[in-house]
Amino acid sequence: MPINSFENYPMSWTPERKKLVPPIYRSIATLLEYDIINGFLAPDTKLPPQRELADYLDVNLSTITRAFKICEVKGLIYAVIGRGTFVTPNVRNAIFLEEHLEHNQYIEMGIIKPLDSSNTMVADTIRSIAGKDYLQNLLDYSHPLGMPYHRMAARKWIQNFSLDVHVDNIAITSGGQNALTLILASLFHPGDKIAVDRYTYPNFIELANILNIQLVPIEGDDWGMLPDRLETACGMNTIRGIYLVPSCNNPTAVMMDTKRRQEIANVIKRNNLLLIEDDIYAFLAPHYLPVSHWVPDNFLYISSIAKSLSSGIRVAFLAYANSFKEKLTYAIFNMNIKTSALNAEVITELIHTGNAERIVKEKIAIAKERNNLFQQYFQICNPHENPFSFFRWLPLSGHHGQRQFEESALAHGIRVYHSDRFSTKKDESSQFVRISLTSPNDITELNEGLRLLKRLLNEGKNA
């Protein structure tokens, strides 16, 4: 079909030809991803047939096929035989890792990768377990909440972060996101409200959207969520729960001190809130008492090992107050059946042999080096941020839309994420970018990524 024939031809998606740069298929995939994530294409929108899109853009059909395949593997679109290709629901703000075989044409500083070079120790542990005569005992349906000695190891791990919980109040789940899903599905109902930080973990935002749970943004300061603002919100709304990442908030890297944790705990007790404490970054923080310590009747404490030990071993430890035991057990029995005992065995072995502690020390040393390099480029020294954070929160001057800034960064050779992805409140008065320091392959690549980002921000100031 000649290009001119498309002037009055209705198409659900018409990417701009002038934005296409080699390799064309990847450029098309990037444009499609941005339009989906930013809401320009609504969930379940039917995309134009591949042949029509190829004619419209004046490219080969195989180019469109390759672009669609990239987006399909990333979960952005799905195909229905005989009907066409559609936009996947609930992907606008979620952050996920690209899964295609070809090498990225940019430096990854968006996704927070957890320094998986330590997986050599994890692999050695797996090989050791494979030779044990009890291996077959790990491969059945028994112990849905976790085998007793796995839960004892979980208790030992959680004690590292100054929380002591009886093993009967600990369950092993298939990662932190699974723990969050179990909590929201079993203890909350559609329409319930949960207080969250102004900027928070984007996959929690999307999970709440899926379950029709409303998030109430609470303003914060340099120490995190403001207790008086939380109190006011509780007085104005029927808030049922609160979600916190106090050891290193994602995305701001803010770390709550003891005083702020106690103040928040007092508000939780006065208003009988369910505390969801996501302490995934506790291993990077001083051993403050968790907020859960001060609310023994209201806490749900998640300790995922994805960032601290190994991202591929999908295990998290969920500790909880007695009042939640019955409903959580019911949810685990019916949603999980059980968590892989083989995965839990790997983590248990790492804890008991001391290798878990070695991995943590190695990661902290790398994180320290990378944070020092970041400071050399941006001279931002905030004493309230976790000094070993895997990511940094950088303020932007001027106003940038999410799509505009992320596209510009990608064109400069880096992928970073704009603050819109993390926002629970529509407000353009201040804007930021989250930079992952742990995703570049080494310190040399990180140095290049920071150099490119610095140049991009300087160009923005001079524009």
Automatic annotation (TrEMBL):
Q: Which UniProt keywords apply?
A: Aminotransferase, DNA-binding, Pyridoxal phosphate, Transcription, Transcription regulation, Transferase
Q: Where are the transmembrane segments?
A: none
Q: Identify this protein by name.
A: GntR family transcriptional regulator
Q: Which cofactors are named for this entry? A: pyridoxal 5'-phosphate
- Indicate the family of this protein: In the C-terminal section; belongs to the class-I pyridoxal-phosphate-dependent aminotransferase family.
Look up the domain of life of the source.
Bacteria
> What InterPro entries does the record point to?
Aminotransferase_I/II_large, HTH_trans_reg/aminotransferase, PyrdxlP-dep_Trfase, PyrdxlP-dep_Trfase_major, PyrdxlP-dep_Trfase_small, Tscrpt_reg_HTH_GntR, WH-like_DNA-bd_sf, WH_DNA-bd_sf
Pfam families (UniProt xref)? Aminotran_1_2, GntR
Q: Which residues form the HTH gntR-type domain?
A: 22-90
